[in-house]
Design a protein that fits this description.
The protein is α/β, with parallel strands linked by helices and 401 residues long. The protein folds into 2 domains: 224 residues, Type I PLP-dependent aspartate aminotransferase-like (Major domain) (Aspartate Aminotransferase, domain 2); 139 residues, Alpha-Beta Complex (Aspartate Aminotransferase, domain 1), CATH 3.90.1150.10. It contains 14 helices and 12 strands. Helix 5 links the parallel strand 2 and strand 3. Helix 3 packs parallel to helix 9. Bound molecules: pyridoxal-5'-phosphate.
Length: 401
């Protein structure tokens, strides 16, 4: 609806993507259909020619999916969006659309693991090369650029130490070198950070995380700035086939309505927990964008309006201390993923990164006492009590260093 353009962000969360549907529902109906009937041969022909406005087949376009896509595009301040089956489907669609054999990508070293593997092990088969850099240092990005660089790919903040990249600097480097800046905005969501404002050309998300926010959907999205890129990418997505389905779109669209207030609480809770941990005698260091001790605290203040829900911290007792905390939390649930209303906790050395071994962990920056927390929207007192109790259970003999 056109009046949306003048609304504040919180109001857009509630209203964006909505159209007039038959019977006047206040929520977009779920068009759970694979295909759409044509009225006549002529109608079918005009739809295929793109002359009539309507729907043909759900992989190509579906009203429920379209409503959610329009909502996310509006929240990010983009032109249009493409709903995908997962964050990885969104990321691979972007790479396949923009790259060809002989091209080069500069990517954050601290990028989401499967994104790195996609570049390393899959796209390399098609003669696409990638350089991984500490993107929180702008000079490192600049140094890695080559004449055939087509994409600078940034995640900010990013795992494992919540590294913050200066988006404006990355955009300037990309544009000076005729490359595009692609930003994975999963950790912040448009409620806290809108990368288009800092020069990004494409913004994408794992909607599995904060956008849906309820840990019950796997989904992704790509947001673009103009029609030419949109139609190019829509064609590729249609051929690759990694589209989101109507029911998941409906759930994500429902989640978006509370994005703004959820993010407020995530930020409020995470700030208090980060400060609590920073003052705890069993904690060596804490990384959270809202702490002045964060090396890129000032860069963060320029580009996000809240500091998010993700915290990393290092326990003084290393591996054993990490295990003790994992085995003694009760409210915080041991699980990968992030961005839901419930608090999740993860110890990479004994869980996701156990099998790679201590040496490989060390070179990947995964220290033995590293814990990652996705702070939920529970009452903060309950989360802190839970952590306090678990930290107490670390055996005294592990308390060295
Ligand atoms: C989870 C995640 C992805 C991948 O998304 P899926 O929905 O799991 O495919 C990509 N980027 C970031 C930053 C993520 O956290």
């Amino acid at each position: 609806m056109s009046h949306n353009k003048n609304l504040q962000f919180d109001s857009k969360c509630v209203h964006s993507g909505m159209k007039d549907y038959e019977f006047g529902p206040v929520i977009p109906p779920i068009y759970q259909t694979s295909t759409f009937r044509f009225e006549s041969a002529e109608h079918g022909a005009s739809l295929f020619k793109g002359e009539a406005n309507g729907y043909i087949y759900t992989r190509m376009k579906n009203p429920t999916v379209e409503a959610m896509e329009n909502s996310v595009a509006e929240l990010e301040g983009g032109y249009k969006a493409l709903g995908c089956a997962s964050g990885m489907a969104a990321i691979s669609t972007v790479f396949v659309t923009l790259l060809q054999s002989g091209d080069h990508v500069v990517c954050s070293k601290s990028v989401y693991g499967p994104t790195m593997t996609l570049l390393h092990s899959v796209l390399s088969k098609f003669n696409i090369e990638a350089t991984f850099v500490d993107s929180d240092i702008a000079e490192e990005i600049e140094r890695a650029v080559k004449p055939n660089t087509k994409i600078i790919y940034i995640e900010s903040p990013a795992n494992p130490v919540i590294a913050i990249t200066d988006l404006s600097s990355a955009a300037a480097i990309a544009h000076k070198n005729n490359a595009l800046l692609v930003v994975d905005n999963t950790f912040m969501s448009p409620a806290l950070q809108q990368p288009f404002k800092f020069g990004a050309d494409i913004v994408l998300h794992s909607m599995t995380k904060f956008l849906n926010g309820h840990a019950d959907v796997v989904a992704g999205i790509v947001v673009v700035k103009e029609e030419e890129m949109y139609s190019k990418m829509r064609k590729v997505l249609n051929q690759l086939g990694g589209v989101i389905d109507p029911f998941n779109s409906f759930l994500v669209h429902r989640g978006l309505k509370t994005l703004s207030i959820r993010m407020l609480r995530h930020c409020e809770n995470a700030q208090l927990i980060a400060e609590y941990l920073e003052n705890h005698p069993k904690v060596k260091w804490v990384r959270y964008p809202g702490l002045k001790s964060h090396p890129n605290y000032l860069v963060g203040l320029k580009q996000h309006s809240g500091h998010g829900g993700m915290i990393s911290f290092e326990l003084k007792g290393g591996f054993k201390a990490g295990e003790a905390v994992m085995n003694n939390v009760k409210l915080c649930q041991l699980a990968v993923s992030l961005g839901g209303v419930e608090t999740l906790i993860q110890h990479p050395a004994s869980m996701t990164h156990l099998t790679m071994g201590e040496e490989a962990r060390k070179s990947a920056g995964i220290t033995e006492g590293l814990v990652r927390l996705s702070v939920g929207i529970e009452n903060v007192k309950d989360i802190i009590d839970d952590l306090e109790n678990a930290l107490k259970k670390i055996p005294e003999k592990e308390m060295v260093g």
